[in-house]
Specification:
By secondary structure, chain A is an alpha/beta fold. Helices cover about 45% and strands about 15% of the residues of chain A. The first copy, chain A, has 3 domains: about 40 residues, 434 Repressor (Amino-terminal Domain); about 130 residues, 3-Layer(aba) Sandwich (Rossmann fold), CATH 3.40.50.2300; about 130 residues, Rossmann fold (3-Layer(aba) Sandwich). The structure holds a DNA duplex.
Chain lengths: ~350, ~350
DNA sequence: CTGAAAGCGCTAACAT
DNA sequence: ATGTTAGCGCTTTCAG
């Protein structure tokens, strides 16, 4: 295994110069640098991250902590983060909690990450107070994606506003009875988005002078199957809603299926809107509020890398824009159709 | 930052003993071991992977090379691998190629991985000859998941057989015109599954004495949207098939949608079967040939870890079982219904 | 069962 | 612009 010494011997220089030349540090003549680079390549020299890490205190590695890699949203964020990390020569260490408390414990409560990574990306989770303390004690840049965590660097969308956008669309169409399919606002995984989206739903009802009925809110667990169950629950009521706002596209698609099983035509009998612009939303012609998922991963990675370069950088709360994407699952409600058509 | 020296000082022993005690090596009295462990925990000692790696030559890290993390199949394999790696104290370094040739180049052609990981998992890709040589030169255990690569350790299903299982089900139901929706059998990413599944399709036709018509084979690119296009193409023919076998559930779901758009009832007018048992298959009541995806990740990780422990272990070709899951998208063809009903 | 000492392969002052 | 010299924090002989 050729090491830096071999390169140094070959070019008849010290290892220090070789190291400087290879890392693009100043204080090396251009001629030397080229010669070193060529020799290194010719010899197939690859630096040892362990040695470099030990000597420099930097691992050039970023940890990404994700609740479930198998969920499209998280995978897409990881993909975005990986892109920019790779471009900048950083490695991505993946920690998938997958609902396993011991995994969560291992990642947060042992100080495992301390000497292992230069920075941390936490996806969607809202860490507990104790976990936050430990994260802070890491003394490394941490960015949280998709959760609202005052005092921390975050990259997310304005979930409340996104929900309001969806609701506004339904209300503008003339809907007055609007159901909500969301997810647990507290639980093992502590996400903040469900709470904010529910708040946006209720806000909008209030603002439109509509009453919020607990019976019109159902739990879809942020999955297809859960969305289908929740949709069925709402649609089988004696007084079903004319529109359903689901806090994620996966749940919205579940609602579509529930509607179909109950022989309801979408959007004639029922309007459905989601949030995400999931890769399948277009496929189902689902109207939704799009959020830049992949981009959130990219921005988060850029943010921690910047903190690494400019340590005095203040943690920023980045809000990425959302956008209403109208497809074919929303329309005026049956009763209002006469009035609103063609206006 | 407390290091091994701090622990050694505290227990009044050498760092060598502390190191041995903490790693569970023999030659340490039980009493010493407990005392060391307790002290280490009390002091919040966390070993430095860089230092340990430099001294031992082992990184306790495994690289996982994945074509697209955002595809459910790959994400599920990653999740399985991560589980067993974590249990055994290994870290997972994720390399997502995402169709980026420069990413692929970086991972395979620089010897980047050499000093960085103890083992490598390659998902579904069939590396080129040159890439294989480089992988071999790493001198580290490599397991390939989901591809058929003679001479290498692999974990996969028998794709040809899985396809035959699907076809047999359709043929048993009485179908005689069966369409196929698959994906490119060659291309940038070089997967082997598409080829094997297509072969299984053609084999089965032959074995049943049916002719294979090129016009009944369409490319669905292994995506929902592609499956929908391919399905439409087949179903809009003058002589459409009575059943379609899609090489993945995602494409099968696309076919379902195409059928719906063309006002074909599934399974009355058209039978559809897929492969995977994707998380959405149950949701769509899709009949499919299930493969243990998550388990493939687990087995692959176990395999490389075993090679790490037992270096003389011979690379194994593990075939995991598949199983026909009959749901509601398959039935006898329209013409045969009279004959086959109630038999 | 435990300790002393010599690295692992780099980087980072500090010199020159 | 380049070299010298110390480590970084562990593991691993080799002794005892």
């Amino acid at each position: 295994m050729t090491g830096i010494k071999d390169v140094a011997r070959e070019v008849e220089m010290s290892t220090a110069t070789v190291s400087r030349a290879l890392r693009g540090l100043p204080g090396v003549s251009e001629e030397t640098r080229t010669r070193v680079q060529e020799t290194a390549r010719r010899l197939g020299y690859v630096p040892s991250p362990s040695a470099a890490g030990l000597a420099s205190g930097q691992t050039r590695t970023v940890a990404v902590i994700v609740p479930f890699v198998t969920r499209w949203f998280f995978a897409a964020v990881v993909q975005g983060a990986e892109e920019v990390l790779r471009e900048r020569g950083y490695d991505l260490l993946l920690y998938n909690l997958a609902g396993d408390p011991s995994a969560r414990h291992r990642v947060f409560e042992t100080n495992l990450l301390t000497k292992r990574v230069d920075a941390v990306l936490v996806l969607s989770l809202k860490p507990s107070e104790e976990e936050l303390q430990r994260l802070r004690r890491l003394g490394r840049p941490v960015t949280v994606v998709g959760a609202d965590l005052p005092g921390w660097a975050t990259v997310r969308i304005d979930d409340r506003h996104a929900a309001a956008t969806a609701m506004e669309h339904l209300i503008d169409l003339g809907h007055r009875r609007i159901g909500y399919v969301g997810g647990a606002t507290e639980g093992v995984l502590d996400f903040t988005a469900p709470t904010a989206r529910l708040a946006g739903y209720r806000d909008s009802l209030l603002a439109a002078g509509l009453v919020s009925e607990p019976g019109l809110e159902a739990n879809g667990e942020f999955t297809f199957a859960g969305g289908m169950r929740a949709g069925r629950e709402l649609l089988e009521r004696a007084d079903p809603p004319t529109a359903i706002f689901a806090a994620s596209d996966e749940m919205a698609i579940g609602v579509l299926r529930a509607a179909r099983e109950l022989d309801l035509q979408v959007p004639d009998d029922l309007s459905v809107i989601g949030i995400d612009d999931h890769e399948m939303a277009g496929f189902f012609e689902l109207t939704t509020v799009a959020q830049p998922v992949h981009e959130q991963g990219r921005v988060a990675a850029q943010q921690v890398l910047r903190s690494l370069t400019l340590p005095e950088w203040e943690p920023e709360q980045v809000l990425l824009p959302t956008r209403l994407v109208v497809r074919s699952t929303t329309a005026p409600p049956p009763t209002a159709r006469g009035r609103t058509r063609g206006r």
